Structures are given as structure tokens and as C-alpha cells.
Automatic annotation (TrEMBL):
Native source organism of the sequence: mine drainage metagenome
Subcellular location: Cell membrane
Gene: gsiC_11
Record protein name field: Glutathione transport system permease protein GsiC
PANTHER family: DIPEPTIDE TRANSPORT SYSTEM PERMEASE PROTEIN DPPB-RELATED
SUPFAM superfamilies, per database record: MetI-like
Transmembrane segments: 9-30, 120-139, 151-175, 195-215, 257-277, 306-328
Gene Ontology terms: cellular component: plasma membrane
UniProt xrefs under InterPro entries: BPD_transp_1_N (IPR045621), MetI-like (IPR000515), MetI-like_sf (IPR035906)
Keyword Coiled coil on entry: no
Tagged with keyword Transmembrane: yes
Domain ABC transmembrane type-1, chain residue ranges per copy: 112-321
Amino acid sequence: MFTYTIRRLVLAIPVLLLISLIIFALLKFAPGDPMAQVPMTVPPEVKAKMRAALGADQPLIVQYLLWLKQFFIIEPLHILGTMTGYDLVGNAQRVISWQTRSPVADIIAQRMPQTLTVVGMSYVVGVLIALPIGIVSAYKQYSWFDQIGTFVSMIGFSVPTFFTGVMLILIFSVYLGWFPSIYDTTLVVDSWPHFWLQVRQMVMPVAVLALYNAAQISRFMRASMLDNLQQDYVRTARAKGMTEQVVVLKHVLRNSLIPVVTVIALGVPQIFGGAIITEQVFKVNGLGALLINAIYADDLPMVQTLTFIFAILIVIFNLIADVLYGILDPRIRYD
């Protein structure tokens, strides 16, 4: 397993370099100018100096190599220096946002807690709801529980999140007044009243995303359980006198989780990417809103960095899913 993991990590390097090159090339050919947000009263020679300071006057290959150096060397050293209290980068040029003229990494670090709080919590809640629903629905196929679970899952997966979000706002904010319709990102949780206010403003966005995630994962869980319940090893286990609880939870569930792990693992990068539509509906100032605003403002360094971070997360969680296969299924051996 260790050898396989190291080999996959080594193979991930050229894959990520190719992805970074494609992202860089696509965004460089897209319309956008680092001086677009600069007032027209600024003299051309000043704009030229500002463009040179950002490295935008260099050939494309130089800009690409500079961005790789900034992303993989300068920014990690800056983060390490911030944690240790030492200046490890000096005056080295960092990845600068064209829109705010601030380091991209600092802006992402400011937005990350909001996204992890709302989207991360919704994903955890969705998984915790989906797995037992899928298991019970498969074990009691065509029962009333299965019918209700299938109906709710179809609604959660079919209805777009922006519609669900608006409906919850109309019902629970406008008519009932139970929860705030706008997420207050400036709220500081330093007391119990503020803590409950934080919980109240998280309820609706978390519920919208949890319903969508649970609908998808529960369908995969149900289908995988149904497939394994018909296998010969299940009948053999029952013939040996094993209890139904042992058969379902130890044998069937373990094998059924293998395809579901892929769905769950590949969904984790979406947490860091943020739920773009839901964040817009509830005004959550997270990474999803940051990406949308950067696209509108032609902020190519921000879009480029966020997109590449999402690509790295997808590669990493693909590897995690493959490793979990070997843990769940003893028949799978990598070494």
C-alpha cells in the first residue's frame, strides 16, 4: 500500500503540471487585462510600470514558470513563515489579485472558514443522512420507507439548489421569520447568543446542500446494497447461521461501500470549491462567491489559482478513494 501511494504521488506530478499548463493557456487566451480596474487618469507609463511589477509584460513561458514558482515555492514558504514567525520569502513576488492588488493566498485564507463552515457541515450532514437511508431502503425494498426515501431523493436530486434555497427563504424567513435570509460573514462567535445566531443562519444553507448531497449518495448506497444482497456469499453467510445484523452490517455493507466511497471522496473537493449557487442565494461570502466575482472582474490570477487548487484536491481525493478500496475490500492488493 505504501509503495502504491508513493508511486501514485509521483505520477500525480506530471498530471498536475499538464493541468496547470492547460489552465494557464486557457486563461491567458481569455479576455482580461491587469490594468482594467485602474482609473483612466493614470498615465500610460505608470500603467506600464505596474504591468511590469505584476510580471504581465513577460513572455508567456516566463509568466507560466513564474506562476509555478510562486504557487509551489513562494506561497508555501510564506505560509510556513507566518506560522513560525520567520520571514522566509523576503521581497519575493507573490501571486497578486488584479482586482484587489492583494496576495491571492491571503484572500483565499480569509474566505476559506466560511466555505468550510457552511459547505463542509452540509456535506457531513448529507453523508450521515444518506448512508442509513440507502442501507434501510435497500434492505426493506419496496416498503413504505423505501418509497418515501426514493421520492425525497428524487426531489433533492432533481430540484436545483437555487430553487430550494429561495423556497426555504420564503417559508422560514419571510413568512415564519425563524431564520435570517442573509448569512452574516462578519459575525464573531464569542458568546452563547452569537453561537445560536450562527447556528440559526447556517440552518437553511446547510439544509439545502445536505438535501442535494444526501439525495445523490443515498441512491448510490441503495443501488450498491441491492446488488450485493443478491450475491452468493450473502446466502452462504445466512446458511452458516450468522445473524442478519452481522450479514448486513459486516459483509454486505463493507462491499457496498466500495463504489460509494468514490462518490463521497470525489465530492469532498466541492467543499473547498464552495457551492457557488447556494452561496449566491444566501450571500455566503465564501470561495464560490470569490470565484464568481473574480470571473466577472477578469481577475485571472485568482481564477487560475482557485481552479488549480480544485484540480489538486481532485487528484488527492482520487488517490484517497483508491487507498480506501484496499482497506474495505481485502481482495484488492496494490503491492
